[in-house]
Amino acid sequence: MLTQTLNPTHIVIDFDSTFTKVEGLDELAMIALAAHEDREAIVQQIRELTDLGMNGEMPFAEGLRRRIALLSANRSHIDLLIDYLRTKVSESFLRNKAFITDNADHIYVVSSGFKEFIVPIVTELGVRAEHVFANEFLFDEEGNIIGVDENNVLASDGGKIKLLRTLNLVGDVYVIGDGYTDYELRESGLANRFYAFTENVNRPRVVEKADHVSGSLDEFLYDNKLSRSQSYPKSRIKVLLLENVHPAAKKAFEDEGFNVEFLKGALDEDELCERIRDVSIIGIRSKTQLTKKVLESANRLMAIGAFCIGTNQIDLETATERGVAVFNAPYSNTRSVVELAIGEMIMLIRNIVPKSNSMHQGIWDKSASGSYEVRGKKLGLVGYGNIGSQLSVVAEALGMEVYFYDVVDRLAIGNARKVNSMAELFGIADVISLHVDGRKDNTYIVGKEQFDQMKDGVIFMNLSRGHVVEIDALAAAIKSGKIAGAAVDVFPQEPKTNNEAFESELVGLDNVILTPHIGGSTEEAQENIGHYVPSKLLEYINNGSSYGSYNFPEVQLPKLGDSHRLLHVHANVPGVLAKLNSIFAKHNINITGQYLKTNETIGYVIADISKNYSEEFVRELKAVEGTIRFRMLY
Ligand SMILES: NC(=O)C1=CN([C@@H]2O[C@H](COP(=O)(O)OP(=O)(O)OC[C@H]3O[C@@H](n4cnc5c(N)ncnc54)[C@H](O)[C@@H]3O)[C@@H](O)[C@H]2O)C=CC1
Ligand SMILES: O=C(O)C(=O)COP(=O)(O)O
Questions:
Q1: Of these residues, 67, 203, 465, 565, which one is catalytic?
Q2: Catalytic-residue membership of 373
Q3: Which ligand 1 atom is the nearest neighbour of the CA of 308?
Q4: Are residues 292 and 353 in the same domain?
Q5: Given 300, 327, 354, which residue is the final one in a domain?
Q6: Catalytic annotation on 274?
């Protein structure tokens, strides 16, 4: 902690666009001129003056006076501004309120803004009111702002320098700010270091002068080892989101301060190996193949988010061995797949696709031949998991008889009947729908032999995974008339992006609905997934909870109290826990909470400990044989 250092370090912080995300005076103008017909133009003029001053392109005092003249604001507007600014405090300052409060003796806010709105905001985060140095407004009797207190040094050119000189701070002085006047404190020799703060704005002219660039207050604290209450800064943790996941996901990570990269399409193996190198969290959908080679290139990867149900695109074994936690969205698009399957089976059994195609060619072919109701027909489901069983319920509501085959013993819902083999199911069903998962063993479970087992004129649907069905056998069965109609949503080879062409033997066949893997692609499902998966990933990263993980031992942890949390992932071999415990004992560590869960491959130990431990203790923990991954949360 700062207060413990012999030679105290003072931190001087700017307000506008540093402590808060916005420029107070610009926002005051927006509020004051709300009803003014030229509001946009006047506010724009004020912004330009602000920028000229911030970049050091106009004497500060002149810019300030000109801005005040344009304002037309009064006291009631300031109250509104304060309410607004409360919602605009920079995220990293909010995150570090405890640090600011604990080190209030050494933190100053020095700003060319105005005390009237700065003091209420910064004191709520722990800054002392008497450590705030800023301008003050002059008001007339009605409370209108008519000028600036000219006696305040901050109203003059070089005001921040003059002010800092009067403070006479003993020890190191670090300045954090986004503007040129903040840099000038360093240039004047009154401060030892200037940190350009870029969380909200990045002014190249200022950044180029800076000793250091801090993308957040976390980075500043971390780089200076100022406090043990500082984990690795989130703005340096890279999140790579592929395959156009919902924007809610991007926002969730950005709101937490992570460095997020967002791509619309998937990447191939070589591109991925390159891009994933320094990524800590990757978000994918069904297309991205996280192979052994890709995972071995991922030096920093902590977690994978599959923004879908299937996880067959991930080498789970390698991920687990490397201590990478995988999360997916097991229910979020279930309903979407079910609705599509229902719609398609009705379209197919009514022979609608050829009818519709003919109409588009101007052909009117009204007839009932080859068109049926689904009511009373037998639906055969292969795979009776979340999708299969929900489809079963909706299909029964439509009057279908449901039969299913699953490799595990699933409870039949409603009047659905379990059968003992796929062959038995295929002998019964009028409509067959596949809802198995994409494990390797399910490759080509439906081919010529299975099509031969089906009833003539069957409707066949695959909305599970492309490799489950032999496409040439399916095409042959359609052409021969064995299959009267088919719906296929998933293919052995699918384009990586919407710019690539789709090719398949199924193209052009009669009464066949082809869809581009959109079973789960509804606005509702994608938005649900966009919230659900990041929430799981963030719980894991921020708190260590692995609840809901697909491959990790699941632990749901309480919020971290006044302790530090050790997260230790190790190979599940005998003796690791004993070794960890002996290190705790040797260093006399006070454990306030301990949790352990294992699966076949790994063990996950979490220990909450009192904060007074040595670096040596941490080193020894990391060196325990079998350790796969170790991290700490503060
Ligand atoms: N088209 C699309 O956009 C979407 C496709 N899917 C696919 O659907 C699959 C199923 O999803 P859920 O029902 O949520 O998964 P789930 O895991 O709840 O159900 C899968 C069921 O299939 C069974 N199964 C696996 N192999 C089998 C086999 N050879 N024979 C019979 N049963 C077998 C399992 O025991 C399990 O009960 C996902 O794994 C995914 O691949 C999921 C969502 C969207
Ligand atoms: O949820 C699944 O497993 C799916 O197949 C949907 O995949 P997608 O997110 O559309 O790439």
A1: 465
A2: no
A3: 43
A4: no
A5: 327
A6: no
- Residues 192, 68 share a domain: yes
- Rounded to the nearest 10 degrees, the angle between the axes of helix 60-71 and helix 39-54 is 160
DSSP-H helix ranges across 484-586: 523-543, 576-586
Tokens 């790579």 locate to: 240
Q: Tell me the CA–centroid distance for residue 439 and ligand 1, in Å.
A: 9
For the domain that residue 111 is a member of, what is the CATH number?
3.40.50.1000
Q: Are residues 44 and 185 in the same domain?
A: yes
Residues 154 and 241 in one domain: no
The domain containing residue 252 runs over which residues? Answer: 237-327
Ligand 2 site, residue 308, Cβ cutoff 6 A: yes
Going by alpha carbons, the residue nearest to atom 7 of ligand 2 is 286
Residue located nearest, by CA, to atom 4 of ligand 2? 308
Amino acid at 543: N
Question: What ipTM did this prediction achieve?
Answer: 0.99
528 Cα–ligand 2 center, Å = 13
pTM: 0.78
What is the CB neighbour count within 10 angstroms for residue 50? 23
Check if 545 has its Cβ closer than 6 Å to any atom of ligand 2. no
Q: What is the pLDDT of residue 501?
A: 96
Q: Which of residues 327, 348, 373 is at a domain's end?
A: 327
The answer to whether the CB of 203 falls within 8 A of the CB of 178 is yes
Distance 519 CA to ligand 2 centre (A): 7
pLDDT of res. 218: 84
How does pLDDT run across 333-363, given as a tens digit for each residue?
999 999 999 999 999 999 999 999 999 999 9
Candidate list 517, 564, 565, 570, residue with the active-site label: 517
Phi then psi for residue 280, to 5 deg, are -100, -30
Residue 443, domain CATH = 3.40.50.720
pLDDT digits (tens, 9 = 90+) for 583-618: 999 999 999 999 999 999 999 999 999 988 888 998
Output the domain CATH number for residue 600: 3.30.70.260
Contact 385, 435 (CB under 8 A): yes
Give me the number of domains the chain comprises: 4
